[in-house]
C-alpha cells in the first residue's frame, strides 16, 4: 500500500497535472491504435510468416515441412526465375525515358503559355485510368492486322509486327505503354518543382550573363533533383512489382516467357501451382532486392548532396 | 536600340512558343488518341472494326455494343462489388487515417515518433512480399471468395494518407488546440470541430486518390475471388475481354473497358484542380 502511494506521489511531482496528461495519452493512443494494429496484422506478421515459409515445402493446404535452403538452391537453378527477374529489370528502361520526356514537357509547360491547365489535365488522364482497362485497350491497339499502332505506322509506310506475339517487340511494346501511362504524373511533379524555383535565381543568373542552357543546367535541373530522386525511387519500386498489364496483355507470359515478370511468376507459382513455399522464398528475395536498391539510391543521393555543397 | 532588341526577343520567343505548342499538341494527341480510338471502336459493329482504312468517326454510329453490354450480368455484379469495396474502404479508412494523423501531429504520447517511423517502414514493404501469407491468414478464417479481404485491411487506415495529413497538420499552430483544451473540449470534439474543417481540402484530395486506387485494384481481387458473382469490375472486364477476344468482338470489349474507367474519369474531371494540386504538392514534399 505504502509503496504505491510513494510511486503516485513521485509521478505527480513530475507531472503537475498528471490526469490531463493521462487523458491526452489515452486519446492519442486510441486514435492511432487501428493503424498500428493494421501494420502488425497485415504487414509485420505476414512478413515474418513469409520468411518462415521460405524455408519450407508447402502447398498452402497441408503441413509445412522444413526443407532448409532447398527453395533458394532451387531458385539458383530455375531458369524461369532468372528470366523473369531479367525481364522485370529490362522493362525499367522505360523509367529514364519517361523521366526525360516528362521533364521536357514540364519545361515547355512552365513557360506559362495559355492552356497549361488544359494540357495538364489531358496528360494526366492515362494516369488515373484503370490499368486493367488500359491494358485491354493497348492489347487491341497492338493487334498485328487492325491495331491502332500499326495503322498509324502504315500511314508512313511501315508494316508493323504483331507486337505482343513477337519475342523482340513485346518488351518495347509494354515499355511504350508504361511510359504513356506514367508520363502525366512525372510531368506534374516536375512542373511543380520548376515553378517553385525562386525567380530571383534566374534574375541573378541573368545579371551574370548566363545563357538559357547554363540556367537550365545550373538552376532548373539541380532544383528538380529531389523530384527526380523521388520519381526514380517510386518508379523502381512500382516497376519491380509490374503485374496487371503483363497478366492481361500476355496471359501466358508472352512468347517464350519474354514478358513474364517476377511478380507474375511468383503469382503463377503460388496461386496456380500451389508451390507456396517456393513462391514465398522468391517474394522474400524480391523484397530484399527492392530494399537494397532503395537504400542504395538513398545512399547515392546523400553522397551527391555533399558534392553539391 | 533597346526597343528593337526587345521586339527581337519577343519575336524569337513567339516562334519558340509556336514550336512548343506543336509539341504539346502532338503529345496531347498521343495521350488521348488511344482513348478516343477505344470509344470509336466501341461505337462500331463487329465488321466495322476490320475496315481499312479505319474510320475514326464511325459511320453509322452503332450503340449495339453498349446494348449487349448492359445485358451482361457480370458487369452489374462487378460494378456493385467494386462500389461496395472502394466506398467502404475509403470512407471508413479515411476517418481512421485522419484521426491517427491528428494524434501523430498534435497530441502527446510517449514513443509517438518511433511508432510513426515504424508505420512508415510498412510503406517500404512491397505487396507481393506479403500477399502469400496474407492469403493464408484470410483463408484460415474462411474469408477467401468474399469481399472481406479487400475491405478489412483498408479499414485500419492508409499510411500514405496519415503521412500527408500529418504533414499538413504541422502547419496548424498548436495554440489553436491548446486554447480549445483550456476551454475544456474533449479530444474528439477538438478533432471534429477544429481539426477536421482545417484539413478538409487535404482529406478530400487524399480520399479521391485512394478511391481511384481502390477502384482500379486488380491483383488482390484476382487472388481472393473465385466465383463470378463475387468479382470486382477490373477482374470482370479482364475475364470478359479474354472470352470475347476469341470471338473478335472488339466493340464489346472496348465498350466495357470504357465503361469501367468512366466513373473514375468523371471524378477526375470534376475534381481535377484539387487532385492535380494535391499530387503536385505530395511530390515536392515527398
UniProtKB/TrEMBL annotation, chain A:
* Domain annotation ABC transmembrane type-1: ranges: 80-297
Asked if Nucleus is a keyword of the record, the answer is no
Protein's UniProt keywords contain Membrane: yes
The transmembrane residues are: 27-49, 85-109, 121-141, 173-193, 278-300
Among InterPro entries, the record links this protein to: ABC_transporter_permease (IPR051393), MetI-like (IPR000515), MetI-like_sf (IPR035906)
Report the subcellular localization: Cell membrane
Q: Which residue positions does the secretion signal occupy?
A: none
Q: Which organism is it from?
A: Lapidilactobacillus achengensis
Query: Sorted alphabetically, which Pfam families does this protein's record hold?
Result: BPD_transp_1
Name-wise, this protein is: Carbohydrate ABC transporter permease
Q: Which keywords does the record carry?
A: Cell membrane, Membrane, Transmembrane, Transmembrane helix, Transport
How is this protein positioned relative to the membrane?
A: Multi-pass membrane protein
* Superkingdom of the source species: Bacteria
Q: Which family does it belong to?
A: Belongs to the binding-protein-dependent transport system permease family.
TrEMBL record, chain B:
Give membrane topology per the record.
Multi-pass membrane protein
What does the UniProt keyword field contain? Cell membrane, Membrane, Transmembrane, Transmembrane helix, Transport
Signal peptide stretch: none
CDD domains reported for this sequence: TM_PBP2
Q: Which InterPro entries match?
A: MetI-like, MetI-like_sf
| Domain ABC transmembrane type-1 span(s) in chain numbering | 79-271
The coiled-coil regions, if any, are none
Where is the protein found, in the record's own terms?
Cell membrane
> What Pfam families does the record point to?
BPD_transp_1
Classify the main location.
membrane
Q: Where are the transmembrane segments?
A: 18-39, 83-104, 116-138, 150-169, 190-212, 250-271
Question: Family per UniProt?
Answer: Belongs to the binding-protein-dependent transport system permease family.
Protein's name in the database: Carbohydrate ABC transporter permease
Protein source organism:
Lapidilactobacillus achengensis
